Queue: 4 jobs
Job 1
Amino acid sequence: MLRLSNVSASYGQVSALKGLDLFIGAGEAVALIGSNGAGKSTTLKVISGLVRPNGGTVEFLGEPITGMRPEQIVERGIIHVPEGRRIFPKLSVEQNLEVGAYSQRAQSRKRTIRDEVYQLFPRLHERRRQMGGSLSGGEQQMLAFGRAMMAQPQLLLLDEPSLGLAPIIVEEVARAIAHFRAGGVTVLLVEQNAELALTIASRGYVLETGTITLSGTSGQLLENPEVWASYLGHE
Ligand code: ATP
C-alpha cells in the first residue's frame, strides 16, 4: 500500500532522513520506533507532504505521491494526526469534528461517521458544545482521533498518540486504534513508548539517525536484545 524507497530529507544543513526504505501492506499496523531526533516525525511528514524529500520516492497504492501538496495527499486518503494533537482550541468539539470532514472524499458519510465517533467516545458527545481547548489532554487526543475518523482515512499516520497521557487513557488510545483497524484502515504509528507501539502493531521498524537499522514482527523486535537495551525495559 505504501512504499518509501531511498528517501532522504533535510532541514537546511540538518540531514533528518538518509536513504530510508519502508513498506506497509494494506490493513497492516506498523510501528516506527526510535529515540529522540531519529527522524520519526519527519518520516510521517514526508508521507503526508508536509516535508518535501530531497531524494527517493514515496508510492501509495502503486502511484508516486512524492512532492505532492498535503491537500492532494489528504484527498487520496492519507491522514496525519501530528504530535501534540493540534485541535482547534477556539472551536467546539463538534466543529472540530466537522473540520475533519472538509475534504471531498469525506463528505458523503459525514453524519454516520460523526455518530460512530460519539459512540466510540461518549465523552466527546457529552462535551460536543464545549471549546476544544477546554478539554483534558486525553480528551483532546480522542478528539484528534475523532477528527481523523471523520476524514475517512485509508492510511492513518499517528505521531506519538500516547505522549503525556495517563495509563488508563493510553488503553483508550489503543482501543481507538483497534477500531480503525477493524474498519480496514492501515496504520503507521510513531511512538517513544516502544512497548505500547509493538503491542498495537504487528510489525515494526527501528529508525536510528535517519535510516532503518532493524525491522521485524513485533514478537521478534520485543525479543531482540538490542531493541530491549535501547528502547524497552526502561522508561
Ligand atoms: P522526536 O521523538 O524527538 O520528535 P523524531 O524521531 O520524531 O524525534 P524528527 O522530529 O523527525 O525526529 O527530527 C529529525 C531531525 O531533524 C532532528 O535532528 C531534528 O532536530 C531535526 N529537525 C526536525 N524538525 C526540524 C525543523 N523544523 N528545523 C530544523 N531541524 C529539524
Note: The pocket of adenosine-5'-triphosphate is lined by residues 11, 14, 16, 34, 36-42, 192 (CB under 6 Å).
Job 2
Amino acid sequence: MNVKEIRQDFPIFKHRPRMVYLDNAATTQKPKSVIQALSHFYEYDNFNVHRSVYTPAQQTTEKYEHVRKQIADFIGSRNPKSIIFTRGTTESINDIAIGYFQRNLSEGEEISVSIMEHHSNLLPWQRLANQTGAKLNYIPLTANGHLDVKQAEQMIGPKTKLVALTGVSNVLGVINPIREICKLAHKNHALLLLDAAQMAPEMPINVQKIHPDFMAFSGHKMLGPTGIGVLYINPKLLDKVTPWQLGGEMIQNVTTHNFTYADVPQRFEAGTPNIAGVIGLGQAIKYLNHLTMPWIQKRCADLGQYLYDQLSQVKRVIVYGPKHRQTGIVSFNVKGVHPHDVATALDLNQIYVRAGQHCAQPLVNDCLKTSATVRASLYFYNTKSDCDRLATCVRKVVNFFHAAQRHLPKYDRG
Ligand code: PMP
C-alpha cells in the first residue's frame, strides 16, 4: 500500500501541506469519497427514510439500510437488525445504561469497569451505581500499563451484572483482552459492553469471536462524518432493551393513551435520523475495507512503535504505557513543562496533538499520577517523517524550557 497515494485521497493534506496531524483519537480526517458522498446525498438523494412511498424516498431508504448491512458485515454480525444508528459512542453507551441497566440493576449488585475508561464509558455507570446502590469496581492496571487480568478474575463474580470495558485505551494505546474478559463475564452470568471507539478504527472486530452483548463506536474516529455512530446489540438482547427516546417512526400503532413499538431496529431510531451521516459512514467503511483492517492495524502499531522509540530517546521525556506498542497512540510528558505549553509549542510548528486528560481523568490522575499528558495519536495516513518532526520539535521544547529553567530560582524549577 502506497501511503503517498493514500494521502492524496484526503483533501485536507493538500490544503494544509505543512500540517502534521497527530490528533486522530480526537477525530480522523475524511477521504474525498466520504466528503463527496455527503454533498451527493444533499444534491441528489435528500429524502427522508422509512416514511414516503415515492420512488426516490424508497431508494434513499434502501441506501440507508444497505449501510446497516455493510456495518454488520464489518463487525462480523450475521444480523443487520443488531445494528442501531446513534450519534456516536457516547449516545450508544447511554442508550444501554438507560434502556437496559436502569431497570436491571439493584443494590448489592456490581458493575466492573477498568481504570482506563473514557468518561463516556464511566459516568453513565457512576450515576447508575449512585442511583441504584450497586457497586462500581475498577479493574486496575499492571505496572506496565496493561489491564490486570488476574485482578479482573478476582473481581468479576456472581454479583457482577455488567463489565463495561474499552477495547483500546485512548490514552495508553493498549489493547485489552476483550475475548478473555467477555468469557469471564459470561461465566458469571454478567453482560459485557465493549467500548470500541478506539478499537474499531484500528483493528478488525468480529462479534462472533468476541461475543460482546453490547458494543459502541463512532463514525468520526474512523473516517466518517461527525454525529453518527453505532450501537450493536446482541440479537438475543434486542427485545430486552427499552428505547428511551420516543417519537416518530419508532411505533407500530398509536392510540390516544398508548402505543406499540415498531420492530427492531426501527424502535431504537426515533425521529429523523442522521441520513447523510449514515451514507457518509458507509463510504468510510468502504474505504477501510479497501485498505483492509489487518493492514491498518499493523500500520498503526508500527508507527506507534516508531514514535515511542523516538520519544523515549529524548532526555526529560516520560512516555506512558508499555514499551511494546500495539496501536498508534503515544502519550507523554516533558518533565517540568506543562503539557499545554508543549502542545502550544508544537502548534507553532503546525504539529497538532492533544494536551489534557483525554476524557480519562481517573487514569491520568490516579495511575499516571499527573494532571495531564500530551497525546500524539497516529492513523494509517501518518508517516515516519511526521513522527520525526514531532520528536525534533519535542527535543527543541526540552532544550528551550531546560535552558529557561536554569535562570529560575531553584524552588521554581520543574
Ligand atoms: N470511548 C473512547 C475509548 C474514546 O476514545 C472516545 C472518543 N475519544 C469515546 C469513548 C467517545 O466517543 P464520542 O465522543 O465520539 O462519543
Note: Residues 25, 88-90, 118, 120-121, 166, 170, 195, 197-198, 218 surround 4'-deoxy-4'-aminopyridoxal-5'-phosphate (CB under 6 Å).
Job 3
Amino acid sequence: MTFKNKVIYQIYPKSFLDTTGSGVGDICGIIKKLDYLAELGIDMIWLNPIYPSPQRDNGYDISDYVAINPDFGTMADFEALIAQGKKRGIEVMLDMVLNHVSIEHDWFQKAISGDTYYQDFFILRDEPTDWLSKFGGNAWAPFGDTGKYYLHLFDVTQADLNWRNVAVRNEMFKVVNFWRDKGVAGFRFDVINLIGKEAILQNNPVNEGKAEYTDKPLTHDYLQMLNAASFGKDEEAITVGEMSSTTIENCILYSRPDRNELSMTFNFHHLKVDYVDGQKWTKMPFDFAELKQLFHTWGEKMSEGNGWNALFWNNHDQPRAINRFIDHKNFRIKGAMMLAASIHLSRGTPYVYMGEEIGMIDPDFTSMQEYVDVESRNAYQMLMASGKSPEEAFAIIQTKSRDNSRTPMQWDDSVNAGFSTGRPWLMTGNHAEINVAHEKNGEIFTFYQKLIALRKSEKLISEGTYKAAYQESDCIYGFIREFSGQKMLVVNNFSNQVSQFELLPEFVNGEILINTYSKFMANELQPYQSVAFIV
Ligand code: TEU
C-alpha cells in the first residue's frame, strides 16, 4: 500500500473558506486553495462531513448519506473538487459516519412512524441499559410513544445503527461505493469501533458502559465485509478508522495488512494526558512522562505487530496542541516545529489539521456565548450542576472545547481573517499575526514543507521501524528509526528550557538530517529543539 509515504491534510469545511458571504465555508473555497495545499506538498485532503444534516453535531448527524449539504455547495462543485484535486496530485478522503444517523434521516422517520423494517435499522430496547452518552446524560431516549427506547451513544439526535442487520450493512456498503464511484480515494470511518454491538446489551456502570460496546469482536467481521464489498479492491485506497477508547491489540488487528480491514487507525490516548483521572472536562498541565510512554508503547507495539498508526496532534475535536503542550506565549514557532517533527519523523501516516502549518492557536473567547459546540454546551451545564461556579466551568470549557480548533482558517489579517465577507458561523481567533499571508514563507510553513518532502524521499522515515530512546529523560522525547541498515535518531525537547543530554554514541558521527534551530550545540537542546541524526 502506498499510504506509508503520504501526508493527509484535514479540512473542517465549515471553517476553511467561504466564497458566498454566507459565513460558512464551502467546497468552492477548498477548490480556491488547492494550489496552497499543493505548495505545502500534501497528498490527500480529509473533509469532515459535507452531507445534508440538521447540523446539531456539525454534520456528524447525517440526514442523507449520498448528497451534498447545500450550505457547502452542489454535487457539481464536489465533482469539480475531485477533478481539480487530481490535477494537482491531491486526492479526497471523505468522512463516513456509519455508526449512527440523524433522527431526521428517512430511515428513522419511517421507523418511528411504525415501519418495522426500518425499526430494525436501530437499536431499540424495552429496558435501556445504564450506559451514558459520550455527550453527557443517558444513552437512551424514548422511541416515540412505542414504550421502547433507542440507543444514542452521542447526541440524542444521533441514533445508533444496528449493524447486526444485514440490510443496514448493505446500505452502508452502498454509501461507500457511491462516493468511490465519484472518485473519492480515501475514507475516514467515524467511531467505527463502536459498530460491533452484541445482541444482548449488558449494564455496566464502570466507565459509562464503554466496555459493553467498544472494540467488540464483530467489529472486525463487519470491517472485513466492508473492505471486501468496497475499497478492498483499490490498491490506492487509504482508509482510517477513528477508534474511540480503543486498545493497541485491536488497532494492530484493525490495521495489519493481512487482515483486510483498514489501512490505519486513529487513537486518542496521547491527547488525554491533560485529563484528571481520564475525565476530559478538567484542567491540569499535561503529563509528559505519560505522553512519552504512550508514544513509545504505541510506536513499538504497532511496529512489532505490523499495525499502522495515524499520527496527529490536532483535529476538529481537540483544542490546538500548541496551547496544550507548548509555552506558546514565548515559543509558539519553535514549539510548533518541534510538535511537527515529533510525529512527521515517526512511524505512521501524519495528518496536518488546517492551520497547524502556520501555528494557529486557540481563540481567546471570553464568554460562553462564543462557544457553539453541543458537547461543550452540555459540559458547561454538567460542570455547574456538579457544583462548579460559572467562572470555574467556563475556564474548563476555554481549555477543552472542540470549538477551539473549529474557528475559521486565518488567511490574512483582514476582517474575519479573510475567511468570509459575511458574519462567520464561529468567531475568528487571533489572526492579526497568525495568518497564511504572514506565515506562508515563515519558519513553520517551510518546516512542514520539508518534513512532508522528506517522507517521500526517505524510506527510513516512511518504512523504518520504531524504537524508544531516552526513556529516562524528563523532557526529551526520543526515538530511533531503522531501515535497511540506515538509522535515524530523533530527539525532541518538550521543555521551554535548555536541556542537557548525551548524544547516543552510535550517532556521534552522524549527519544532521533536520534541525529546528540553525545550530546544534553538543550535549544540549535549546527550548523546544528537535534534531534528527542519521548514520
Ligand atoms: O468523535 C468521536 C468522539 O468520541 C469525540 O466525541 C471525541 O472523543 C470527543 O469529542 C473528545 O472529547 C467523532 C467525531 O470526530 C466527532 O466530531 C463527533 O461529534 C462524534 O464522533 C459523533 O459522530
Note: Residues 57, 60, 97, 134, 154, 190-191, 242, 244, 280, 316-317, 375, 402 surround 1-O-alpha-D-glucopyranosyl-D-fructose (CB under 6 Å).
Job 4
Amino acid sequence: KKNIVILISGEGSNLQALINAQKAGKIRGKICGVFSNQLNAYGLERAKQAKIPIQILEAKTQPDHIEFDLNLIQKIDSYQPDLIALAGYMRILTPTFVQHYKGKILNIHPSLLPKYPGLHTHQRVLANGDKEHGSSVHFVTEKLDGGPVILQSRISVFPDDSEKTLMERIKVQEHHIYPKVVDWFMQGRLEMRSGIAWLDGQPLTEKK
Ligand code: GAR
C-alpha cells in the first residue's frame, strides 16, 4: 500500500474527509502520519481519534525557514511517503522541500486558481463582487499556489454571503474533490510531467 502524509495547521476538516474516505475504502493508500506546525490544531485530535501518528514542529522552536523544512523532511521521510497532501497547511514551503518531493505534493486551495493565490480568498471574492467562487486541487511547485490545477469545484456567490458562509460551502465541496484526487494519485493515474498535470495519460492543464 502507498503511504500518505498529511500536513495541517488548523481545523482539519479536509484531513477528516481523507480519513473517512480511507476508512470507506475510497482511497487506495494509507494515511501513515499527520504533521502540524500548530500545537493547537484541532486536526491533531482527529488524527489521534483515527490512531494516526502525529508530529508537531512549531516555527518558534525552529525560526530558520530552511532548517524548519529540513527538519520536516526528516520527520516525513521516516514514513516513506508516496504522497504529501497539504490540507490547510498555512506555512509556505521552501524550494528545498518542494524539490525533495517533486511531483508528490498536492494542495487544496480555496479559490478558482489562477485567481486569488495566497490568503483571504473569500474576502477578496466578496470585495470584488465575484459571481462565482470555488476551490482547486493542484500539484505544488515552487510558485505559491501556482502549480498545475487538477480539479476544481465551483459555487455561486449570493448577495447575502459572508466569508463564513462561503468558507462553509467551499469546504463541503473540498471534502468531495480532495479525496477523489488523492485516490487518482494513489492509483497511479495522476502525475506531474513537464509542468503539466496528467490524468490517465491526458493533459489536464495548459502549461503556464
Ligand atoms: C481549506 O478551505 C483549504 O482550502 C484552505 O484552508 C482550509 C482548511 O480547512 N487552504 C488554504 O487556504 C491554503 N492556503 P480544514 O483545516 O478544515 O481542512
Note: The beta strands are 3-8, 30-36, 54-56, 83-86, 105-109, 132-139, 149-156, 190-193, 196-199, 202-203.
